[in-house]
Batch of 2 targets.
Target 1
Amino acid sequence: MYDLSPPITEQLAVWPGDTAMSRELLLKIDSGDSVNLSTLRATVHLGSHADGINHYAAGEDGIGEQPLEHFIGPCQVVHVKASKGERYGIDSLPPDFEMLAPRILLCSGTYPDPNIFNEDFAAPDPSLIDHLAQHGMITIGVDTPSVDLCQCKELLSHNACLRNEVRILETLQLQKVPAGYYELIALPLKLMGFDGSPVRAILRSLPGQPGG
């Protein structure tokens, strides 16, 4: 089993200007209270997370309204050739790439430390999303904070996901995961109308399959 979620601490980096994680202890056993009781304040795009469609398109559904099949089921981890600050396309896929599952997790290796926000991470080209969607992809996962480049205000890859009805997982920890075929479990919270949700993303190896 592989855990794809970074630890959620106050050191976890968030998108510049977004709400970093903080914890307030309302009750403390050490202070004589009967229980510990915490309040969490943070962006919903915290660590490994899923985007609601309304994050990048007006009038669309939030994350709580999304079909669960996008976030659980067979998936494929693919290590791509990528340069920092650039988009990677179809030619970045391994020469022997064969699509094995409808959920594709792309490892670029360009966002190595979830506690340090480096703005020069790579992102999939919209043409790659179109290509994979035409072959049955329903969910794309990336090991970076966005499927778009940090300074891309046009959200080209988000829009490619929108037109192909592909759902998005971001900031997955994939560097230590061998390429192959797995079961993905990355369920978002049922936050109705929200534009995103943290997920506890894990992969389970499947016996007899690549990566298993």
Note: The chain is about 10% helix and 25% strand.
Target 2
Amino acid sequence: MSLPEDLIKVLDLTRSHNRWRRFECINLIASENTMSPLAEAAYFTDMMHRYAEGKPRKRYYQGNKYVDEVELLAMDLMSRLLKVEYVELRPISGTIANAVVFRNLANPGDKALIAPVQAGAHVSHTKFGTLGALGIVQVELPFDLERWNIDVDKAVKLIEEVKPKFVTLGASVYMFPHPTKEIAEAAHSVGARVVHDVAHVLGLIAGGVWPNPIHEGADVATSSTHKTFPGPQGGLIFTNDRALYKAISKTVFPWFVSNHHLHRLPALAVTAVEMIEFGKDYASQVVKNAVAFAEALSAEGFKIPTEHLGFTKSHAFVVDVRDLGGGAKAAKLLEDANIILNKNLLPWDPPEAVKNPSGLRIGVQEMTRFGMREDDFRELAKFFKEVLIDGRDPADVRKKVIEFRRNFLEVKYGYDIPEDLKDSLIKVPMLL
């Protein structure tokens, strides 16, 4: 049977993407990861076609007796993994999780304090994103460039002066833990709440190498489930505050989510089990790799603004490429060599520099998941130098990158599909 031309085109594009990204590229996007084969198998199930509005065992649709049990199990696993009392899994993204929490803590016209965008705050924290859409007034926290962190003393004074409804910590460029304890003490003294967005470091928290903000005084944490935490794309909220949890759960549906993409749930549960088993080793290796990669890039002649701080304590770091034509040019040249990352604002950039900012943002979590270790990232640093400093043709370097990637094709720190389950799980093979 011959297929329609448009269908052939769709399949060819999908096949090309899969081959390129999973077999030929080095992915350094700090907000991405890859699930294990078993989690992917659990993702591709009939649940992707179904609806389950409401909470488990209190649905507005029939046909969810197994979905309910999977969701409750996933909630329990995440609660155990994060060592918290209450977990809400229905937000379908980290941004939606933020929207739910923000709406519960403030009304239009109220004020909220956030980290500066140039210092790494996610767009959903800001007046340009979810905060602005909810009509909440943005006030920026002071930033200490020397420490690459919130300026605690100035922040405390600002909190006392502004008396916001809440303070948001966490970032998209999150290299050093924010001072949760000190900010929480100041916020609580004026009746404010602390929201900590841990989307980028959730896997590091689960692995025990990054502080859990709930244990340090934050009232509620929001996250996605697909960055350092290598699960399906989605969001979650967690807290030890029962009253706040109940209020949040009542507004996830129907205010912000109808159906919550049920096929995420078994994949998330599988990933939670994997993180209970392998999370400590994985998270430790992520941080080791990030430091080793930043050190190697510095040795090759690149400017790492946080070198004096030990480069990073997370999966990510930034490179200042102003002298190399800016972030947009550098990111495109590297992409031409099959090295994928993103341009990024640095603290000294004005907002209008977003199209060609000073920096590159680099994350090592996905390639760690594929088995790369410190020496492998040192080798990768040489490819950066060839492209961005030596001016080599990216097409020539691309050949080396493709050959290099052949050593890192199997996901580590997770489970393959056991033989006795292959017939009972729906396995959709990757188009190749």
Note: The chain is about 40% helix and 15% strand.
